[in-house]
Amino acid sequence: MRPAILNPLFADITVLTGVGPKIAALIGRAAGPRIVDLLLTPPSGLVDRSFRPKVADAPEGRIVTLEITVDHHEPPPKGRRLPYKITCSDETGFLTLVFFHARADYLIKQLPEGARRLVSGKVEEFKGARQMTHPDYIADPEKPGEMPLHEAIYPLTAGLSAAVMRKAAMQAVDRTPDLDEWQEPNWLAKHHWQTWKDAIETVHAPSAQEELSLLSPARQRLAYDELLANQLALALIRKARVKTRGRAIKGDGKRIAVAKKALPFSLTGAQTEALKEIFADMRSNERMVRLLQGDVGSGKTIVAFFAMLGAIEAGAQAALMAPTEILARQHMESLADLAAATGVTMDILTGRDKGAVRAEKLDRLKNGEINILIGTHALFQEDVAFKDLALVVIDEQHRFGVRQRIALTQKGPKPDLLVMTATPIPRTLALTAYGDMEHSRITEKPPGRKPVDTRAIPMSRLDEMIAAVKRAAAEGNQAYWVCPLVEESDIIDLTAAEERFESLKAVLGDRVGLVHGRMSGPDKDAVMEKFYRGELSVLIATTVIEVGVNAPNATIMIIEHAERFGLAQLHQLRGRVGRGDKKSSCILLYKPPLGETAKARLKVLRDTEDGFVIAEEDLRLRGAGDFLGAAQSGFPRFRLADIAVHGELLAAARDDAKMIIDRDPELRTPRGEALRTLLYLFSRDDAVKLLSAG
Prior knowledge:
This protein is α/β, with parallel strands linked by helices. Helix content is 39%, strand content 17%. It is built from 23 helices and 22 strands. Strands 6-7-4-3-2-5-8 form a 7-stranded mixed sheet. Strands 12-13-11-14-15-10-16 form a 7-stranded parallel sheet, with helices on both faces. Helix 13 links the parallel strand 14 (389-395) and strand 15. Helix 7 (217-243) runs parallel beside helix 23 (685-693), helix 9 (269-283) runs parallel beside helix 10 and helix 19 (596-607) runs antiparallel to helix 20 (611-627).
């Protein structure tokens, strides 16, 4: 049960004054539907109204607060659509206040002739005279409290005014309860941090630009709270997994020995080390939940196959799930020879399997005749039953979070879980999303893998690129051509995938294919399958191919407007080529002039092919907010913490969480009870439920 003290914060925002259903929908889009969402959405900017020059000294374009005398009103002639003007002055000069579509009675009441008033807004020059259009505030100098000197600016959405959002946020802050402290007193004293409530109030009431800094004491305090909630939840999930013991899986090594001999190459040192860690996990009585990271082409699939062989040697079954049907089929093809050499029965199950074909596969699976089942999400449908599933391998699983990882292992008696990703993840981000897992990294590529020649070329040389692609196609090679948009946009001047498809089709005819995110899954797979089979010379695509087709014959990757892509994304796209024995190249087409960050990004990509170095640089250059794009949706999105800035706090939160669980595994001490409140506050209810279940 959520602590009663938090209930006011988890109320719907419609309980706030001035927030009806329409405004609630807009605030929900900008921050969230509950009061706690407003509370955990910090201001993104600040309006400073403390600058109070004289009229003659007021600079153009800057917000100023002026004390003026109202001289006279100039209402527009009847029937004329002209603005209402009010001439004002101080001892240094004149200022005209300008109002469009104004109500005269309101303005006469607010700004009576002869009265002194404070007006705040931007001053501009118009036909040699100074004016202020629609002042933000009009106040009586005797009542200065009517006009705030500092106003927090919050994230907005179309139709939502800054004033409405600010008023709602202030009401949320007013509802903040005093909560029992969950941080250690010594830790708070060391960092000169306030209580949680005081920190919330400080963050929402900045009086200077530096108070908006992610490194301000109040923001750091709240960031640490959020990171501690994240790490504590992961620590509880890990503890619950250890508590529900797994099974020891140990084979005799015979099939693995045969597989090693059948390989046309030797395993790399990194692959061998990863296997050593995996087999140690599988042999223990605790359930394995391990993340296997490695660049595209580093040999993760072979490592996974050896792990699955270990399960089969122990008399059990294994499952390999891929994010798309075409990837599932490619895994099937790439492992077919090894499966045959080791006497392993392997099959595939996808959404295409219907009726008698599907029923027959499910029977064989249930009877144990299928040793390894490869497939898509179809593997985890209700009617799919294994005889004895001991190992689940999930490929490219960064699209899923902790909850899905728990759900995907319900098909067997506590099966081990091996999660693979070709997306190199910075260490700090890996801690936030995969902190409940052990980590293995494959940091070297198999011998013989040729480096990809990477070049940055301006868009002015586009015709040369088209000619080069035409020559490559004539020689039997294939190329990817990636565009950032599906169709032309009036707002962003980028070449659309559809437009580039038409222009290349005019040169290469039917040897050009197009895939993008708006296509249906089967349509997308059909085009990518044709490319994989060599029936297409060029595949025009948006970033849907970032994790996708493996075409060994593809030797060219062209990325249009490369300056618009993130580093990790560019690296993933580059990894689609250079998979065969031919020399490959990656062309980064950019539109000059390049900003400093874009220049740095393209330079890093040219200088290294190490995905882990690239991921760390990407996080440094872009920050966590931009790194966590749609393709990274398995990562938690923090509201108050920024991993790129608060990395040290994350490491401390991880250590703190471990110490807390070691000392107080059920969170029953006074601090433990306060920490339960913290978990609820940051919506980590799942972790609290694990405590209740335990």
